[in-house]
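Please fill in the sequence for the structure shown.

STRUCTURE ENCODING:
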Protein backbone atom coordinates (compact mmCIF):
# COMPACT_ATOMS: atom_id res chain seq x y z
CA UNK A 1 0.00 0.00 0.00
CA UNK A 2 1.50 3.32 -1.05
CA UNK A 3 0.55 6.92 -0.40
CA UNK A 4 -0.84 8.77 -3.38
CA UNK A 5 1.23 11.82 -2.51
CA UNK A 6 3.63 13.32 -5.01
CA UNK A 7 6.32 14.01 -2.40
CA UNK A 8 6.98 10.31 -1.83
CA UNK A 9 7.36 9.42 -5.56
CA UNK A 10 5.42 6.21 -5.05
CA UNK A 11 3.15 6.72 -8.03
CA UNK A 12 5.70 7.54 -10.73
CA UNK A 13 6.25 5.22 -13.69
CA UNK A 14 9.56 3.77 -12.45
CA UNK A 15 7.97 2.50 -9.24
CA UNK A 16 5.02 1.02 -11.11
CA UNK A 17 7.37 -0.66 -13.60
CA UNK A 18 9.54 -2.11 -10.82
CA UNK A 19 6.51 -3.52 -9.01
CA UNK A 20 5.22 -5.04 -12.25
CA UNK A 21 8.60 -6.72 -12.97
CA UNK A 22 8.79 -8.15 -9.44
CA UNK A 23 5.18 -9.33 -9.41
CA UNK A 24 4.23 -6.87 -6.67
CA UNK A 25 0.68 -5.57 -6.67
CA UNK A 26 0.92 -1.82 -5.99
CA UNK A 27 -2.11 -0.44 -4.20
CA UNK A 28 -2.45 3.31 -3.88
CA UNK A 29 -4.49 4.81 -1.08
CA UNK A 30 -6.03 8.22 -0.79
CA UNK A 31 -3.80 10.89 0.75
CA UNK A 32 -4.15 11.62 4.48
CA UNK A 33 -6.34 8.58 5.20
CA UNK A 34 -4.42 6.29 7.55
CA UNK A 35 -7.60 4.25 8.05
CA UNK A 36 -6.95 2.55 4.70
CA UNK A 37 -3.62 1.25 5.98
CA UNK A 38 -4.66 0.11 9.43
CA UNK A 39 -2.24 -2.84 9.81
CA UNK A 40 0.82 -0.67 9.16
CA UNK A 41 -0.54 2.10 11.37
CA UNK A 42 -1.14 -0.40 14.20
CA UNK A 43 2.42 -1.77 13.87
CA UNK A 44 3.80 1.77 13.93
CA UNK A 45 1.77 2.58 17.03
CA UNK A 46 2.97 -0.59 18.79
CA UNK A 47 6.57 0.30 17.99
CA UNK A 48 6.18 3.86 19.29
CA UNK A 49 4.45 2.72 22.50
CA UNK A 50 7.11 0.07 23.20
CA UNK A 51 9.86 2.62 22.48
CA UNK A 52 8.30 5.18 24.79
CA UNK A 53 7.99 2.63 27.57
CA UNK A 54 11.61 1.49 27.22
CA UNK A 55 12.86 5.06 27.10
CA UNK A 56 10.88 6.15 30.17
CA UNK A 57 11.99 3.17 32.25
CA UNK A 58 15.67 3.48 31.33
CA UNK A 59 16.04 7.23 32.02
CA UNK A 60 18.49 7.56 29.13
CA UNK A 61 18.81 10.72 27.00
CA UNK A 62 16.35 11.29 24.14
CA UNK A 63 19.29 11.47 21.73
CA UNK A 64 19.33 7.66 21.86
CA UNK A 65 15.95 7.57 20.07
CA UNK A 66 17.16 5.46 17.14
CA UNK A 67 18.64 2.89 19.55
CA UNK A 68 15.34 2.73 21.43
CA UNK A 69 13.39 2.09 18.21
CA UNK A 70 15.78 -0.68 17.12
CA UNK A 71 15.56 -2.36 20.53
CA UNK A 72 11.76 -2.06 20.58
CA UNK A 73 11.60 -3.69 17.14
CA UNK A 74 13.94 -6.44 18.39
CA UNK A 75 11.60 -7.12 21.32
CA UNK A 76 8.43 -6.95 19.22
CA UNK A 77 9.86 -9.47 16.73
CA UNK A 78 10.33 -11.87 19.64
CA UNK A 79 6.92 -11.30 21.23
CA UNK A 80 4.06 -13.72 20.47
CA UNK A 81 1.06 -12.17 18.73
CA UNK A 82 -2.53 -13.31 18.49
CA UNK A 83 -2.69 -12.63 14.74
CA UNK A 84 0.11 -15.17 14.16
CA UNK A 85 -1.56 -17.83 16.28
CA UNK A 86 0.59 -17.23 19.35
CA UNK A 87 3.84 -17.35 17.37
CA UNK A 88 6.47 -14.65 17.10
CA UNK A 89 7.37 -12.84 13.85
CA UNK A 90 10.89 -14.28 14.30
CA UNK A 91 9.44 -17.78 14.46
CA UNK A 92 7.43 -17.26 11.28
CA UNK A 93 10.43 -15.86 9.39
CA UNK A 94 13.10 -18.34 10.52
CA UNK A 95 10.98 -21.44 11.30
CA UNK A 96 12.48 -21.78 14.80
CA UNK A 97 11.79 -20.33 18.22
CA UNK A 98 13.89 -17.30 19.19
CA UNK A 99 16.53 -17.62 21.90
CA UNK A 100 15.74 -15.24 24.77
CA UNK A 101 18.44 -16.16 27.28
CA UNK A 102 20.68 -13.27 26.18
CA UNK A 103 18.13 -10.55 26.93
CA UNK A 104 18.80 -8.08 29.74
CA UNK A 105 16.87 -5.09 31.02
CA UNK A 106 17.12 -2.19 28.59
CA UNK A 107 19.25 0.63 29.95
CA UNK A 108 20.87 -1.46 32.69
CA UNK A 109 24.35 -0.49 33.85
CA UNK A 110 27.14 -2.48 32.18
CA UNK A 111 30.87 -2.73 32.71
CA UNK A 112 32.71 -3.38 29.45
CA UNK A 113 36.29 -4.58 29.94
CA UNK A 114 39.16 -2.32 28.88
CA UNK A 115 41.88 -4.50 27.39
CA UNK A 116 44.37 -1.86 26.22
CA UNK A 117 45.83 -0.71 29.53
CA UNK A 118 49.57 -0.23 30.00
CA UNK A 119 51.23 -2.54 32.53
CA UNK A 120 52.55 0.42 34.49
CA UNK A 121 48.99 1.55 35.30
CA UNK A 122 48.13 -1.21 37.75
CA UNK A 123 45.53 0.80 39.68
CA UNK A 124 43.64 2.07 36.62
CA UNK A 125 40.05 0.76 36.47
CA UNK A 126 39.77 -2.24 34.16
CA UNK A 127 36.19 -1.50 33.14
CA UNK A 128 34.17 1.43 31.87
CA UNK A 129 30.66 2.24 33.00
CA UNK A 130 28.08 2.05 30.22
CA UNK A 131 24.41 1.39 29.62
CA UNK A 132 22.83 -1.30 27.48
CA UNK A 133 21.02 0.34 24.58
CA UNK A 134 20.68 -2.34 21.90
CA UNK A 135 20.86 -6.06 21.13
CA UNK A 136 22.63 -6.75 17.83
CA UNK A 137 22.67 -10.52 18.18
CA UNK A 138 22.57 -13.21 20.84
CA UNK A 139 26.10 -12.30 21.97
CA UNK A 140 26.60 -8.77 20.62
CA UNK A 141 25.36 -5.79 22.62
CA UNK A 142 25.52 -2.06 21.98
CA UNK A 143 26.60 -0.06 25.02
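FILLED IN BY: designer on duty
SEQUENCE:
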Amino acid sequence: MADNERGYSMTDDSTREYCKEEGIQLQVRSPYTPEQNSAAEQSRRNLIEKSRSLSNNANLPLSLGSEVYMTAAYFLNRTPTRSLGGKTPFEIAYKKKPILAHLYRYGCRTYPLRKQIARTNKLTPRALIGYLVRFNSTNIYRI
